[in-house]
Amino acid sequence: MQQVIAELSQLIADGTQHFIQMPESEWAAKPDPAKWSKKEVLGHLIDSALNNHRRFVVGQYAQGQNIVYAQDQWVASQNYQQAHTPELIALWQLLNLQIVRILENMPSDAYQHVCDTGKNGPDLHTLEWLAEDYVAHMRHHFLKL
Prior knowledge:
Layout: H1 2-21, H2 24-28, H3 38-61, H4 71-78, H5 85-105, E1 114-116, E2 124-126, H6 127-142
Antiparallel strand pairs: 1-2
Helix pairs in contact: 1-5, 1-6, 3-4, 3-5, 3-6
């Protein structure tokens, strides 16, 4: 878990610097009307942080909880495209710093607790796997930002 924490911490630092230097025109541009803008991608990463925050907390005391994320509905209902970009950057940064604190504080015996992320039936993953996947997911989206 220490490697995950270190990598997430570095992604937060690097991402924050990159994000604050990006002009608003880049944030708002939509490559296609049906595709997300960079602002909406950042919103998606905020939503991912919110859902994984809950998984990392609840998963420590209540195994097998079904915590799913309907990404398109979340992004659409929150209207990230119209949000103030510096607020989105700050929210993303603060949520991820809190996730780092949760992971740093998580007892090692909780790493193997499971959480159900299935939308159409059980899809059980350990908290350790979810933490690793969370960082991989963030790296994947950073290529688009």
